[in-house]
Design goal:
The protein is about 35% helix and about 30% strand.
């Protein structure tokens, strides 16, 4: 499975950005051909020893799943893809990061009674 992962941190107004993302950005993304689903996660830092303080600034993680790696490449080159990328840059009043990933799943084989 191929996806993009967006991370957002040090947001000036997290609730406002989250509302924008869910009500405006996600519906537009989900209309694009080859986009399967999107997930948004609010992150709360753990108290791991020696955890890098910069990672504790990350507040949201968004995963967007696509039919293929080629779909991601094609969508990034479209006018709508560029517009959505620009819109994120304008609306995000904080730190932003974006990654392309290939996802692998490993499930537990433990039998539960």
């Amino acid at each position: 499975m191929y996806k993009t992962v967006g991370i957002y941190g040090k947001m000036e107004n997290l609730q406002e950005f989250e509302r924008f993302y869910i009500s405006e950005f996600m519906p537009r993304m989900l209309k694009l051909p080859g986009v399967i689903e999107m997930k948004i996660s609010k992150l709360v830092p753990t108290q791991l020893p020696d955890q890098d303080p910069e990672f504790q600034e990350i507040q949201l993680m968004v995963e967007t799943y696509y039919e293929s790696a080629e779909t991601i490449r094609q969508l990034m080159g479209t006018e709508e893809g560029r517009q959505l990328g620009s819109l994120l840059s304008v609306k995000c009043q904080g730190k932003i990061g974006a990654y392309v990933a290939q996802e692998y799943k490993v499930k537990s084989s433990v039998v539960r009674l």
